[in-house]
Each structure stands twice: as C-alpha cells, then as structure tokens.
Amino acid sequence: MTLPVPGGTRTREQELADRLELRELADRYLVSLDAHDDDQWCARVFTEDVRAVFPLGEFHGLAGLAEFHAHGRARFEKTLHTGSTVLVEPDGDVARVRAHLVAVHVPDAAAPGTHFVLGGYYDAEAVRGPRGWRFRVLEFHPVWVGGDAELPGVFTGATALPNA
Q: Which of 79, 83, 114, 120 could form a disulfide with 142 if both were Cys (CB 3.0 to 4.6 A apart)?
C-alpha cells in the first residue's frame, strides 16, 4: 500500500527515500573531508553553482572547491569530522538540511594529544539533480573552538582567506 504524504502528492516511501539520501549526502560530505585522497569528491557532494561559507571565507562554484578545502586543512596531518543530529526537510526537488558536527584537527600525527577541535553546525540547501541530491548552499557556523594546538588565525580574528 502506498500512502500519500500529508499536503502533497508524493508517497511516504518517496519522502523516506529522499530523507535517507539527504542524510547520506551529509555523511558523504564529512567522510570526504577526512579522506584526503580524491580531488573529485566535491562533485559528489555539491552542485556546479555551489555557494559555500566557512570561517576561512566564502567560495562560489565547484571548480577549485576541493583545493579551497585542502588549503584550509593543510596545516593538519590528520582530521576527523564527526556528524550527528541531521535534520532534513525535503520539499519536492529542494531540501533544507541542518547537521551538527565536531571536528578534531591534529597538526602532528605523532603527537595527537596536541590538537585543535571545534563544534558547530551547518545549514544547507540541497537540490535533486540528474546525479542525485547535492548541496547548492552550505554555511558552516562554529559554536565553540578549543584544544592545545595553536588556533588558526581565522578563529582568533587574526587572519582570513581571501574569497575565491
């Protein structure tokens, strides 16, 4: 039996499939941040016309976005981004996503006790396209930062990357 979604023509099964795919998109984003082995990961997460906003700066368009992320993590040998509390609100071929995350950044893998850690969330707009769901807008909002490693200047107000 196929049940309609209240207020719409989509079935409950379609809505659940969308919610699952959107949660997998959120997971794919965080896993890709730590992989460090594939410059094509952004095409599996973002649209061609993405607008991404981070403490390091704002970036527009897919071309160069992987390098922008790589520049941001260049001073760290290891990173671990852990996500939770992923809320998704699909509405046809557009969806809002909010996800919480905690990220640990280790400058020297031989001394993991010295690290930079932050907690925050991102708000995103995802769109369904021919390759599935992708983020068109992603805005990261740090809530707290800390750790034993020197904090990147962007978190202390000392520096910021220029807009790409």
A: 120
